[in-house]
Every structure is written in structure tokens, then in C-alpha cells.
Amino acid sequence: MISPPDAATPDLDALRSRLLPERGGQVDDSIPQLADADPDFCALSLVLPDGSVRSSRQADVPFSVQSAVKPFLFALALLDTDGAALDRVGIEPTGESFDALKLESGTGRPPNPMVNAGALLTASLVEGADAEARMVRIARGLAAFAGRELDVDEDVAHNEHLLGDRNHALAHLMRAEGTLEPTADDAVAVYARACATLVDAETLAVMGATLALGGVNPRSGERVVPERVARDVVSVMATCGVYDGSGRWMRAVGIPAKSSVSGAIVLSVPGRIGGAVVSPPLDEQGTSVRGRLASEALSDDLALHSFRSG
Questions:
Q1: Once rounded to an integer, what is the mean pLDDT over residues 192-196?
Q2: What pLDDT is recorded for position 65?
Q3: SS3 string of the chain?
Q4: CB neighbours (10 Å) of residue 240?
Q5: For 34, what's the count of Cα atoms within 13 Å in the CB-facing half-sphere?
Q6: CATH number (domain holding residue 157)
Q7: Is the pTM of this model over 0.85?
């Protein structure tokens, strides 16, 4: 294991203050609750292998996890299917938007678990005889990653389900291809509820650290998933986690990550650190503008780039 960052971990409040003058990006308006987000909300958190936490102001402010839930849905699907989920979903980057109405040619599979089609499918693969049972299983699994019980914003879940026309279209497309077993409506409902799970920056950082540390939660000490599952998930985060900006992200930041339309980014540096940054204004790829800048700074300050030479 590479040695973790020491006490010289950057002053996250100072980094936050440097980020706040950045005014680029637009807040997502796909549902009312996201459109109402405070564009000045900004929080950062890092979790070290010993479970210690470094956080900025606002790191305890809750928000809906949105697409940052996708790595954890993939992990639960791999766990509950004993790895067979890899036969049901691809792992290649797409170069297209997160909600593109596109499946793999010839297989009908989603291209990877980090786009919406893939997350709809992985959420349907967790254990459960029906939609309600899968929702319960996902809630239990996310709580294990977080090391605490998590609430769901019921209004967000309702609107994600009601207004998610492209997700319904993707689910129907997968049903037509024979890829998705539950009904389209059930699949969207399960995924919408997962996206509506409430976290804060510190909690999301713990979740990222659990993946980074081979599936063991550094706060609770619980093994949540096997090391191989954590490895597979972080690998796909590295190649697909920032959608059609994943290549640019890995060049500039070099940290496996997953972005979300709530402005959250979860970070997982294998063997070293988990992190989260959140600020709602997004760039054209749906990635937090301040979150990207914060991640670049953390990567440089802590020498976290995956391809650094020394």
C-alpha cells in the first residue's frame, strides 16, 4: 500500500475560498429540486485509510447523491450476482452524453455502468424479488458504504421518476432488446430512489474511501464488498466516470472519479484516500466546475495522479 497523505493535507477551507470566486457553469434544472440548488454551495472532504477526516465548511450540508451513486450500484450488482453483472453491462467509455439513447451494437447491453442505461440495469441486478425489495437492498448497501443510515428525499425520488423521460426511454429500449428483466417503470423507480439518497460531502468521501481501500469502510471497519469488486468498480470509474470528459479528466486530474448533476464528485485513489467535492454549477459534460478545479488542486498538492512518475 502506498503511504497515505500525512498531516500536510491541504487546508480545505482555504482551497474552498479560492474556488468560490469561480462563476462558470450552470446549475442543472432537470428537476425543480436541482434547479433550486444554491450556486455558491461548495464543500470538500477527504478520508484517510485510518478513518480520519479532513473537511471544509459546508461538508455536513445534505444533497441528493444523483449519478455519484452509480459506482456503488455497480458494486452491489457485482456482489449480488457473484460477478455475473459483467456479462450484462459493458465497461467501455462511450464518448457520448450520460443519457444517450444508445446500447452496444449486437449485444443490446448498456455500454458501461456509469451512464444512465448502465445504472438502470445494475440497479435492477441487485437482490430483490420486486422493486420494493431492490430499493431496500440498495438502501442497506449504500448505508454500509457510508457507515451510517441514509435518508431519501422523497420529493426528489418522485420527480426523478416522473420527469425522467429519457430514463424511461432507455429502460424500454433495453426491454425491447431483452437486456432488462423488470418493467421499465420499476427499473426507473428503483434507480430514481437511489439517486435521491441524501449524503453530504463527508459521507460521500467515506463511500469513496471504502472503494479506494479495497471494499473496507475505514470508519466502521466493515468489509462491504470484496477487494476484487472494489478494484473492478474503481477501474471503470477511471475510464468512464466523467462521461465524455473522462479522458481529459484522467489527463488533468488522474484520479478515478464519478461526477453527478447535483455537482458532487466522488474520488477514489486506490490504497490512499477517498474524497468528495460538491458545488452545483456544471460544465457541458455535467461535471462540477469548482469540483474539477478542486480535484486538480488536490491531485497536485497530494501527488495523487495515477500516472505520476514519482
A1: 98
A2: 98
A3: CCCCCCCCCCCHHHHHHHHCCCCCCECCCCCHHHHCCCCCCCEEEEECCCCCEEECCCCCCCEECHHHHHHHHHHHHHHHCCCHHHHCCCCCCCCCCCCCCCCCCCCCCCCCCCCHHHHHHHHHHCCCCCHHHHHHHHHHHHHHHHCCCCCECHHHHHHHHHHCHHHHHHHHHHHHHCCCCCCHHHHHHHHHHHHCEEECHHHHHHHHHHHHCCCECCCCCCECCCHHHHHHHHHHHHHHCCHHHHHHHHHHCCCCEEECCCCEEEEEECCCEEEEEECCCECCCCCEHHHHHHHHHHHHHHCCCCCCCC
A4: 26
A5: 26
A6: 3.40.710.10
A7: yes
Do 173 and 265 share a structural domain?
A: no
CA dihedral 139, 140, 144, 150 (to 10 degrees): 40
In a domain, 137, yes or no: yes
128: left (phi over 0), alpha (psi -120 to 50) or beta: left
Q: Does residue 2 lie within any of the structural domains?
A: no
Kind of pairing between the strands at 198-199 and 63-64: antiparallel
In the block, cell 502506498 appears at 2
Task: Report the pLDDT value the prediction gives residue 6, as an integer from 0 to 100.
Answer: 47
131-181 pLDDT, tens digit each: 999 999 999 999 999 999 999 999 999 999 999 999 999 999 999 999 999
- φ, ψ of residue 237 in degrees (nearest 5): -60, -40
Q: So what's the pLDDT on residue 309?
A: 82
Does 136 map to a domain?
yes
Write out the residue range of the structural domain in which residue 90 sits.
Answer: 67-195
On average, the pLDDT of the chain sits at: 95
Looking at residues 195-219, what average pLDDT do you find? 98
Residues 204 and 173 in one domain: no
